[in-house]
Amino acid sequence: ECERASLSIIDGYKHDGNAVRKDMSMDTSEARFCGSQLYYTEEGMKSYLSSGNRLLVRLNTKDRPSSSVIGQRVGFKLIWTAVEGLFDELNPSTALSSSEQHRRTHQFDTCTQFTCQGGQICVEQ
């Protein structure tokens, strides 16, 4: 399936021709999705968490949809959300007191717009 159509998510500042600006990090990673959604059996297989605030999303196709699928939705569905506070929570050197953890837990119970604080990943409905 990947030969016919794939969706690539490139994390960082990688561009066409692999040229990278000198002032940007050379560290990039890439995720590739293709085929039927049935292939991705676990929720984590359908998602990608970037390491920064910049992504390049590329849809690669070789074929046009066949006449049998005209009028039907064909392709990929992309949902994104911003995440704040995730890296602080993963860093053991920034341990919080139990009262501060309790305050933050209740402060981040809601998801406003696409911003989810406290490391939660959610999508506005």
TrEMBL record:
Classification via InterPro entries: Sperma_CUB_dom_sf (IPR035914)
Annotated SUPFAM superfamilies: Spermadhesin, CUB domain (SSF49854)
Protein name per its UniProtKB record: CUB domain-containing protein
Organism the protein comes from: Teladorsagia circumcincta
